[in-house]
Amino acid sequence: MLFRGHGKGLAVIAVLLGMSASMSVSAKAGDVLYASLGEAARSPIGWVEFCAENASECRGGSSQPRDIVMSQTAWRDLLRVNKWVNEAIKPITDMDHWGVIEKWSLPTDGYGDCEDYVLLKRKMLIDAGWPREALLITVVRDKKGDGHAVLTVKSDKGEFVLDNQNENVLAWTETGYRFVKRQSQSDPNIWVSLGDSRPAVATASSRDR
Predict the structure, then answer these.
(1) φ, ψ for residue 152 (rounded to 5)?
(2) Are 159 and 171 in contact (CB under 8 A)?
């Protein structure tokens, strides 16, 4: 079972987040810190079906959007969670895993595709005390134009991306992706467009790691 033995790890993260530290990540001059939000967008079918089976993972949080204060400690914990999940989960397509084209699920058996990595990172951070409103599942187009899912972390220093294809946590402008849509901060079940109107289905391939 994937989560067995990691309660202590999550507790350590929660303790670390309570410590103050100076910020080691600074914005460069001319950086666009935040993505421009557009109109309401259709929720991915994978998210809708996931929520039908996992209602507790899809509850709305505070109606007041909250950003993370990106301290040095918070930054280290983002790197730790991103790296741990990327190494712990083995990539597999939904067709090979479940026999269907698209299925979002927490990767409790140790296998998943891009959105499953995102769901686990989101869960670990929420369980460690991070506000849901700052952890936004995001659909992008990767450098080959394929649909892909990442986790956007919205902070006072800008928006950063946790990605199963990169062990580093990058500013959203440094990923090379085209951002299509993501969850609203006010409600995880409302999605908003990010300027690319073409549909993108977040499916994985054998290289989706």
Answers:
(1) -90, 130
(2) yes
